[in-house]
Amino acid sequence: MKGFIFLVAGLFIVGSVPCWGDDHKEECQALVTSPVANFDFGDIPEGGGNVTHSFTVHNEGDLPLLITRVIASCGCTTPEWSKEPVAPGDSSMIHVSYNPLHRPGTFHKTISVYSNGSPNPLSLTIRGNVVP
User: Fold this and answer.
1) Residue 2: beta bridge partners?
2) DSSP string over the chain
3) Residues contacting residue 92 through CB under 8 Å, at least 6 positions apart
4) Can you tell me the distance from the alpha carbon of 72 to that of 62, in angstroms, rounded to the nearest whole number?
5) Do the Cβ atoms of 106 and 128 come closer than 8 Å?
6) 78-125: per-residue pLDDT in tens?
7) Most buried of the four, 80, 91, 98, 109, by CB within 10 Å?
8) CATH number of 30-131
């Protein structure tokens, strides 16, 4: 039992070690940002096939960013992303495809990016108008 208590205490200590530098003010973490978090396709033809937009995500933190999953708000939207860690200061792409077939009218879809970074999740959106 004492070993378990020391293990838990050790995890709390290791998990709260501040980043060295900048006067030790903040804990190390990955910070995920996207310069453009919303994209409007405008008018797209219903029978024209899938449309795709690529969002850039940056790691502005001190630790590697690990994108664990990306979930779209409906099955008509398909995200693709790299499973490789994003080093501090680097960027990665999240490609989002929307299928307009049999979906006339306006659409607004949310893509939730889950990671070890903050904010978690990061929300991205696509919108547009499907013309029959």
Assistant:
1) none
2) -HHHHHHHHHHHHHHTPBPSSGGG-SB--EEEE-S--EEEEEEEETTS--EEEEEEEEE-SSS-B-EEEEEESSTTEEEEE--S-B-TT-EEEEEEEE--TT--EEEEEEEEEEESEESSSEEEEEEEEEE-
3) 56, 57, 59, 65, 67, 81, 82, 84, 86
4) 28
5) yes
6) 999 999 999 999 999 999 999 999 999 999 999 999 999 999 999 999
7) 98
8) 2.60.40.10
Paired tokens of 93: 């792409």
Query: What is d(CA 52, CA 96) in angstroms, rounded to the nearest whole number?
Result: 5
Alpha-carbon gap, residue 75 to 12, rounded angstroms: 40
Q: For 17-63, how does the pLDDT look when each residue is reduced to its tens digit (9 = 90+)?
A: 456 555 544 579 999 999 999 999 999 999 999 999 999 999 999 99
